[in-house]
Fold:
Amino acid sequence: MNQNQPNTLPPDYFDDVYRANDDPWQFASSPYERGKYAATLAALPRERYERAFEIGGSIGVLTAQLASRCGHLLSVDVSEAALSQARLRCANLPQVEIKKMQIPNEFPAGQFDLILVSEVGYYLAPPDLARAADQMLAGLTTGGQLLLVHWTPVVHDYPQTGDEVHEFFLAKAQPGGPLRHLLGQRQNKYRLDLLEKV
Structure:
């Protein structure tokens, strides 16, 4: 791989990871993940979002927790192995729709009042993140919210760091930009930023 032009990680990368381990990042068992999910949900200022979109829902642990706040929640991932677990985990949640989708090559139709990008932005090379951001902005209602949550230490395989992903979006929250910054939190190993479409 050319270090000057990193590539977006392909679906095969994630299929291999899930083949090796059903829960490779310990989403279901790690105290770190549990605390981060609690902070993620606490950062959302509205009790209810009519149409929410979760990019990179993985095995559905956060999806299941977010569902009670949503009229309809579309959760997507590129790995069928992850999605099969998510479908089981969310089987009793009729407001949750789980689909295989690769952002930015595919993007759902319609408008959302919440888009969640948790632990997935750094898998995208900068040009793909830019395309995805344009799609997210087009897909957000006016006043719709974009919540970003990412691990900040460098991971050798990933095309970007969590900080680079957040700084890219925060640049769109400058005066006159399409977003405004509502909340920023930095923890030991992750950061969280909530933005709103103006």
In short: Strands lie at 49-55, 70-77, 96-100, 112-118, 140-151, 179-186, 190-197. Residues 27 and 33 are 6 Å apart (CA to CA).
